[in-house]
Amino acid sequence: MSKHSAKFAALFARKPLDALLKESQDDTKLKRALGPLQLIALGLGAVIGVGIFVATGSAANSVAGPSLMLSYVVAGITCVFAALCYAEFASMVPVAGSAYTYAYATMGEFFAWIIGWDLVLEYGVASAAVGVGWSSYFKSIAETIGINIPQALSESPWRYNTEIGQFVSTGSIINLPAALVIIVITAILIKGISESSAFNVIMVCIKLAAILFVIAAGIFLVNSANWEPFAPFGWTGVSFFGYNVAGQAGQGGAPTGMLAGAAIIFFAYIGFDSVSTCTEEAKNPRRDVPIGIVVSLLICTVLYVGMTAVLTGMVKYNELDLNAPVAIAFRQHGLGWAEMIISAAGVAGITSVLLVMMLSGPRIFLAMARDGLVPKSLFGAVHPKFQTPWKSSILIGFFILLLASFGPIDFLLHLTNIGTLLAFVIVCAAVPVMRYTHPDAKRPFKCPWVPVIPALGVITCLMLMFSLPVGNWWRLLGWLGLGVVIYFAYGFRHSELNKFRNR
């Protein structure tokens, strides 16, 4: 084999399954402290937040109308396909790393790097966006009790204007509430996974109580006439790199319709995969992680559909508030007292999302550091007392703090959707590959109906990806291009797998 052929082959070298299992026993292992209930709570904590409390209003208003109920079902089914694939891998390979680790074992190092870099984008940008959402809800609550936070200290200095395609000044200095909550969450994550999990459980209980309250109280305020027409923007909404294939175009040429709504509110489901990043901290990962992934996703889907049905029944879809649709809907019915309850629950809900999102990124880097693809002294360091990846938690926390405090998050937000969908495509495609290459591997949980379920996962994820505006594709390609440069500049040369192959 020539030198160039050997290098090309090294790009797609797969990591042996035995080596992955051995890693959880080395000196950088994490503390196993999570049972099935804690993992379900982490899933609920990651998923229920900004999506349901904020995104529902804008998605129903201008993209899907009342058919957003079915949009949540479509997005949920798409996630179920991916979740079953995640669950099989999590039971087979109970180590940190999530989709990055699964890709390394099935498709090789280069694909693993791409998916790891993609996950960094997902968790980092999503955390920053959630931090900004937290700041808005906190400011609203502060105003109701007579505390006025100046705009100069509660907004980003810049915002991206999509109409002119430029950054514009807001006149603000820093989003201080977002910065402070990220500092607090980072400190909690460094302290330990048990403390982080306990804090998350409390936040999850608060927001679940609020959602059940909204459904129980709002169902008596539903006017079925508000559900007509049920699909005012149509039932489809699929485009291919900016060209509409099915459905009508909305503002800026973006697709609209029920399927387009599913692509937009997919953001509301992002996070269930973060349960798999905590596999190495689960007491019985082969059993409990699949339970945490699937159960949390099913609970969220039922709650999302119920809440959307009530919300669009209480207020006509084109009259929903874009920033705080749930709280404002109750105000419009003369129930202003409920607004405070819902806003407080919104803060709790968004806090738990922020915690789980920020928890996930350092664990992806830990897996990549073990493989030599990023500096091990920084990203692979586990605190001797707290048993958490403390250095990378601080570094990622600082990066998120900068984005949330100063960055135009609206410019990057949709990257989270398309990046996550890409990760799901790779995980779904990897299941039949692993079944073929490792037919005798122990699988405590098996994805049913392989290859049908993985194929449906790939198809539905690609369908939602093509239902996003074309700008998201170019931003994703730009981010991945930067990742490829970093991989060849550092990761490829320091890869532990390549070092072993060259001995």
Description:
It is a single chain. The chain has 503 residues and is mainly α. The protein has one domain: Amino acid/polyamine transporter I, CATH 1.20.1740. Helices cover 66% and strands 3% of the residues. The chain is built from 19 helices and four strands. It has a two-stranded antiparallel sheet with strand order 1-2. Strands 3-4 form a two-stranded antiparallel sheet. A hairpin with a 4-residue loop joins strand 1 and strand 2 (166-169). Helix 7 (109-144) packs antiparallel against helix 13. The two termini are 16 Å apart.
Strand segment tally: 4
What does the main sheet amount to?
2 strands, antiparallel
Number of domains: 1
The name of the CATH architecture is: Up-down Bundle
Strand adjacency order, main sheet: 1-2
Q: Give the low-pLDDT segments.
A: none
Overall residue-averaged pLDDT value: 80
The run of helices and strands is HHHHHHHEEHHEEHHHHHHHHHH
Rg, alpha carbons: 22 Å
CATH level-four homologous superfamily name: Amino acid/polyamine transporter I
As a percent range, the share of strand residues is under 5%
Helix percent band: 55-70%
Classify the secondary structure makeup into a structural class. Answer: mainly alpha
* Apparent shape: globular
User: What is the CATH top level name?
Assistant: Mainly Alpha
The CATH topology turns out to be Amino acid/polyamine transporter I
